[in-house]
Amino acid sequence: MLNEREIESCYLGQFIPVHYHHNMLMDQNRMHAFKCAIDHVVFPGAKVLELGGGTGVLSFFAAQKADKVYCVEFNPDLVQEARRFLAQNARGDRVEVIHADAFDYLPPEPVDVVICEMIHVGMLREKQVDVIEAFKQRYFERFGGPLPMFIPEAVLMAVQPLQKDYNFEGYVAPIIQFEETTVFQSGTVQLGQPVIYSVLDFTTAVDPMIGFDGQLLIEQAGELNALRFITKNVLSVVQERGSTIDWLNHYMCLPLAQPLRVEEGDIVQLSFRYRAGGSIPSLQASIRAEVVHSAACLPQVAFA
């Protein structure tokens, strides 16, 4: 019998199917960004821990410089995949793949770098925040400070008002959509600029409750019927160049249950609140949007 946490993990994405991890290997933006960040942060002779190793590719990147990499994965199918792939790659023998729960695991020695890629748009579904915060507490209790470096170092999240075309060959269906960040989205009108609603810095304590109560400026008239959620992962800060190595998740567009007619110059009061690692419906249920300033001065309220 599965316990409560295991049941929640199955539902929220901790047991992502193996073929989905294979697809992540083909995501060139993700792969290149993590490879660059790991190469920048990991130094020769380092000890590295990866929490949620998947196919083992990020541990492989780390092993090109590190002396030892502990790669922790809870899904037994992926444990087998990672071991199989690493055996075929140079320096794969520096990676120890461990079948364990990232919520509980501690390495047998202090480490210099921790890699954790349990990242969903908006920090939903997957348990990135909970896993890292639990790790920090265990690590301090066992080894004291300082904490290792984290990849990613931080996450920035923004929300943007949209008008989306939900007509599919005559069939109207307001659905959740995930969009590639580099592809033009036909049928999508950006009604305003993105507004940052949360910044998570993993070098400090992270509050698992994420929320926003702010305003969006409408720059183009239309029907506000969706919100685009944008998640930018700061994988590493390159201080010597004054730059960062970043990775953008696919955009997530959530439909509003009751669209709002908006005009250029309108101000929309928007609020929502959810827990990191929670479900997408939990975010949707909390969304409130209201036009608080318009030429018509007729407030509208949308619930999603």
TrEMBL record:
InterPro entries: Arg_MeTrfase, Methyltransf_25, SAM-dependent_MTases_sf. Pfam families: Methyltransf_25. Keywords: Methyltransferase, Transferase. One of its GO terms (biological process) is methylation. Residues 48-132 form the Methyltransferase domain. GO terms for molecular function: methyltransferase activity. PANTHER family: PROTEIN ARGININE N-METHYLTRANSFERASE, PROTEIN ARGININE N-METHYLTRANSFERASE 3. This is Methyltransferase domain-containing protein. The lineage of its organism: Bacteria, Pseudomonadati, Pseudomonadota, Betaproteobacteria, Burkholderiales.
